[in-house]
Design a protein that fits this description.
With 278 residues, this protein is mainly beta. The protein has helices spanning 2-15, 187-194, and strands spanning 34-46, 54-67, 71-74, 77-84, 88-97, 117-130, 134-147, 153-154, 158-159, 162-168, 174-185, 213-228, 231-241, 257-271. It has one domain (2-271): Porin, CATH 2.40.160.40. Helices cover 8% and strands 51% of the residues.
């Protein structure tokens, strides 16, 4: 059950732009405080950044949306909103990476498995330009990854600045999103993915110690459509360019690029009579 929940959070994080609340289709005060329903989808991602093996996940799970003044759990993510002005928003966001079993990843054969990483930390969002049907903002998230299954051991820091552009039609039927960013990890995080300790070195996999620096640049695209008042379908794809990664000399680094893709649906079963906070 824990793995399925983590998988859901990770998938929701990947798919969040595709299923985000439609732009200006309904003013915030007219949205319900909470909604419940079902979320389902399937996704394919690299086993880890730079891996030449892949992970696939498919699931259908309950969906809960809550639009409180501070606590927020909605189609754009899960977190606590600490500051909200016309131009700047500060919240606490979360992300999850899926585990990778060494038996399923050739490059890591005989090495310890990679556990799921639960990431959380502050995220600053700055609105750069708004129109009636589009938005452009800068996001500056700084997250602390915690290794699940190993006593919540801290695995460094990740910084992921990115530009996000959203657009949609006035009716809220269509929603599109594009984002471009960079992912930086400190030495500890990069060691988690790319270190090869001497006891795990082989003729084809020499010992290696990773350092801090750029992990990848990232481009994401997504599209969603409301097909009925309670139903929305979505698809997304993400391309990672790792050709300038600080640890591309690691024997665990096998590919200079990677892509993720997925599709799914949301079904809202019930909405509250109480209205959401601005």
């Amino acid at each position: 059950m824990k793995l399925r929940l983590l998988t859901a959070v990770m998938f929701f994080t990947l798919a969040a732009p595709a299923i985000a609340q439609e732009l200006d289709a309904t003013p915030a005060p007219d949205l319900p405080l909470w909604e419940v329903g079902l979320f389902g989808g399937a996704a394919s991602t690299p086993a880890y950044p730079g891996a030449d093996d892949r992970s696939q996940r498919a699931l259908v799970l309950p969906m809960v949306i809550y639009r409180g003044k501070v606590l927020r759990a909605d189609r754009s993510g899960i977190g606590a909103r600490l500051l909200n002005t016309d131009r700047v928003e500060l919240d606490i966001g979360f992300a999850v990476s899926l585990p990778a079993k060494s038996d399923d990843v050739g490059a890591r054969a005989g090495m310890p498995d990679l556990n799921s990483l639960l990431e959380f930390g502050p995220r600053l969002k700055v609105r750069l330009a708004d129109t009636e049907i589009s938005r452009l903002r800068l996001e500056l998230p700084l997250r602390v990854p915690l290794e699940l299954g190993n006593g919540f051991k801290r695995q460094g820091l990740v910084f992921e600045p990115r530009l996000v552009a959203e657009t949609g039609d006035r009716s809220g039927v269509w929603q599109a999103d594009a984002n471009l960013g960079m992912v930086f990890g400190n030495a500890r995080l990069n060691r988690y993915f790319y270190d090869v300790a001497p006891q795990y070195a082989t003729a084809d996999r020499p010992a290696y110690q990773a350092g801090a620096g750029l992990m990848m640049t990232r481009l994401g695209l997504s599209l969603s459509r409301r097909v009925a008042p309670d139903w929305r379908v979505f698809g997304f794809t993400r391309y990672d360019n790792l050709s300038h990664s600080a640890n591309r000399d690691s024997p665990l680094f096998r590919k200079n690029s990677g892509w993720s893709a997925g599709a799914g649906f949301t079904w809202t079963i019930h909405r509250s009579a109480a209205r959401a906070w601005e």
